[in-house]
Amino acid sequence: MGAAKTVAGQSTEMPEIAEALGRMEALLRAVGTEPLALDEAVGRVCAGTLAARLDAPPFAVAAMDGYALRWADADGPLRCRGVARAGDPVGAPVLPGTCRRIFTGAPVPPGADTVVVQELAEVAGEQVRILAGAEARRHIRPAGSNLRAGDPVVQPGIRLTARHVGLIAAAGHGEVVVHRRPRVAILSTGNELSDRFAADRATQILDTNRPTLKALVRAWGGVPLDLGIVPDEPGALSATLARALGAGDVDLLVSSGGASVGEFDYVGPSLTALGFEPAFRKVRMRPGKATLFGRIDGLPVLGLPGNAVAALVSALIFLRPALSLLAGAGRAALPEEQAVLATPLPATGPRTTILRGHLGRGANGGPTFAALADQDNAMLSGLAAADALALRPADAPPARTGEPVAIVRFDRAPGF
Amino acid sequence: MGAAKTVAGQSTEMPEIAEALGRMEALLRAVGTEPLALDEAVGRVCAGTLAARLDAPPFAVAAMDGYALRWADADGPLRCRGVARAGDPVGAPVLPGTCRRIFTGAPVPPGADTVVVQELAEVAGEQVRILAGAEARRHIRPAGSNLRAGDPVVQPGIRLTARHVGLIAAAGHGEVVVHRRPRVAILSTGNELSDRFAADRATQILDTNRPTLKALVRAWGGVPLDLGIVPDEPGALSATLARALGAGDVDLLVSSGGASVGEFDYVGPSLTALGFEPAFRKVRMRPGKATLFGRIDGLPVLGLPGNAVAALVSALIFLRPALSLLAGAGRAALPEEQAVLATPLPATGPRTTILRGHLGRGANGGPTFAALADQDNAMLSGLAAADALALRPADAPPARTGEPVAIVRFDRAPGF
């Protein structure tokens, strides 16, 4: 759709977000696997099928507190013989003319085909009489009713939760094979950047992108590898990239530029010299235009803008789904939902426009979105205080309070 | 409210969920603190206030590409002298009658008080003429407009995200003091339980609660300590509890029973012998009635039902907020929202009733809830396949398709 609506060539040079995501996703493959203890596997992505090794429950159990009996005997008075409790071994058979006191979860003794709930039993000493309303074959959980030996319990591509862990344990497995955490090498470019606050250098520019991107990689299931700040010399970037490629254990390289102008003009030749095959070199979005993706010798490379706000926004849109694909979890759609504008917004211009704002609650209980007054891309403090982004299409007219708008709540992308 | 509506004494003996949560929360305190590198701190809870150590930006920078000039000179033609790019040091002053080519993010040179965007400048060789529409003092981000030295950037109790990490880095800090991960000791009780599948023991009952609870503790930010399966002998439980208490580094003890009947009758005397001070011994909910909370010698103890489904449901309601309080993040409300019933439901009986089900999308775009046909508490497979719980009040009449119902989506409690 993007291609059809834009001038020929533009969609190739500066694709819409959806088109750029599609090109990126086509080039990413799930990383390798490792076995893990069950409780360490939550959040990881299952890489194989596991089948139950036993029936659960292993024998028929009572589903209610009451009396286990042969239904054929239910008309006459029964002698109550013995008690079956949860955790007991399967007991002796119930003989004709008898019944057994039984509690929820207890093994149903051989011979018994029915559990009658205690409310429908009249008890006098050892004698039990079954009242009207009792039904044949009720209140027994058959062996294997939770799981049957051979039943599949998890499939590849599932992101494991504690509920899966319980089911895998019930199926007789103590570990599970999952995709390992993707390893993401991270670098910043820019001569002006420094890594450490020095009280005597009041005008230093601190690199915020590496700590931020390392934090996002961890939060989204990867392992960050810090390549440091690379000076603005093509030779330096090439050397760092070559080192990352040579290490051979990197699944994705993420760079962010040190300047908001001319970034690609600088990074581009270094990448080209290394044989970079671009999927896209910019994206029709604001902020975040200076986002690129491609491969060098098979290694996926995501280039983010140098500006801190633009880098974060672009990471939410591109890095999060990249990590999901590398981790084996498939495509991770941006968690968009609808809200109602609590403030008017200006027309958008030629790119998808992404705004920071605060959420509220509308008259009908649904979310409202109030854009921050200051949408300056340098305002990391504003982004840190915001709750959500709004995404507005290119060339949209001004929007009034009360109009619908697509939003992404930050709490729907934990860690962001 | 619970107290007023129920028989006197009942609310003390078997409180409603909200009352039980309140009693638990009153007894939990945040654990100690540790310093962490910024990128390792995502998801952890800030334990102090951090203030900016420098202005950001450290000097005034251009907010647009254009020309930096003295507004007093804007009427006449200007000679363009030099270029300022992002990352450049602050340059020489702009002399009267001159301007400087400047790009977004570049330091505004001394003397200049205005940046005129390039679209409002007519350039002929070195000569620049400012067009109508340019405005005084525009397009300059003053020093400290993002952060001012001394500004607080994070407060105690904030759960840190990557956006906070960026802001803390911009403020000149390389680490942050956070609450350490709460240490949670976990045990199961029950003679019938085994830990490891044995192909020659077809009727074994595997302990699913310990792997599940360890997984939940990890997912919800704690460190699990496995105390194993404790046999059904009061001496054994006392010995294990004494060992856990003696270790001194446990923040919360979580037990789950091995049987669904008579659990407290068994665990109770062991706890009492150890000086257990109960906050509650059961909860007016179904499943999950057999949940208890209190302290032994100051150590918080949460007892969960032995049944796997009941233990998971009770963990969502009690363990999740307990970990939030221990981690310093304050109260974590159950993330309840409204849905519409896609299936009718029966009347509920004397306890808050919690049902497993699948989510769908209703005609108006909101969520619908279809209860699983089998609500048997033994059906871990059903819980694993479900998307949400519905919570219905005690003594509610049957509900029809289309009626509203309170739900908790599992994806709102990641890891569950």
UniProtKB/TrEMBL annotation, chains A, B:
<feature type="domain" description="MoaB/Mog">
    <location>
        <begin position="185"/>
        <end position="325"/>
    </location>
</feature>
<dbReference type="GO" id="GO:0046872">
    <property type="term" value="F:metal ion binding"/>
</dbReference>
<dbReference type="Pfam" id="PF03454">
    <property type="entry name" value="MoeA_C"/>
</dbReference>
<dbReference type="GO" id="GO:0061599">
    <property type="term" value="F:molybdopterin molybdotransferase activity"/>
</dbReference>
<dbReference type="InterPro" id="IPR005111">
    <property type="entry name" value="MoeA_C_domain_IV"/>
</dbReference>
<dbReference type="InterPro" id="IPR036688">
    <property type="entry name" value="MoeA_C_domain_IV_sf"/>
</dbReference>
<dbReference type="InterPro" id="IPR001453">
    <property type="entry name" value="MoaB/Mog_dom"/>
</dbReference>
<dbReference type="GO" id="GO:0006777">
    <property type="term" value="P:Mo-molybdopterin cofactor biosynthetic process"/>
</dbReference>
<keyword id="KW-0501">Molybdenum cofactor biosynthesis</keyword>
<comment type="pathway">
    <text>Cofactor biosynthesis; molybdopterin biosynthesis.</text>
</comment>
<keyword id="KW-0808">Transferase</keyword>
<keyword id="KW-0500">Molybdenum</keyword>
<comment type="similarity">
    <text>Belongs to the MoeA family.</text>
</comment>
<dbReference type="InterPro" id="IPR005110">
    <property type="entry name" value="MoeA_linker/N"/>
</dbReference>
<keyword id="KW-0460">Magnesium</keyword>
<dbReference type="InterPro" id="IPR036135">
    <property type="entry name" value="MoeA_linker/N_sf"/>
</dbReference>
<protein>
    <recommendedName>
        <fullName>Molybdopterin molybdenumtransferase</fullName>
        <ecNumber>2.10.1.1</ecNumber>
    </recommendedName>
</protein>
<keyword id="KW-0479">Metal-binding</keyword>
<comment type="function">
    <text>Catalyzes the insertion of molybdate into adenylated molybdopterin with the concomitant release of AMP.</text>
</comment>
<dbReference type="GO" id="GO:0005829">
    <property type="term" value="C:cytosol"/>
</dbReference>
<dbReference type="InterPro" id="IPR036425">
    <property type="entry name" value="MoaB/Mog-like_dom_sf"/>
</dbReference>
<dbReference type="InterPro" id="IPR038987">
    <property type="entry name" value="MoeA-like"/>
</dbReference>
<dbReference type="Pfam" id="PF00994">
    <property type="entry name" value="MoCF_biosynth"/>
</dbReference>
<dbReference type="Pfam" id="PF03453">
    <property type="entry name" value="MoeA_N"/>
</dbReference>
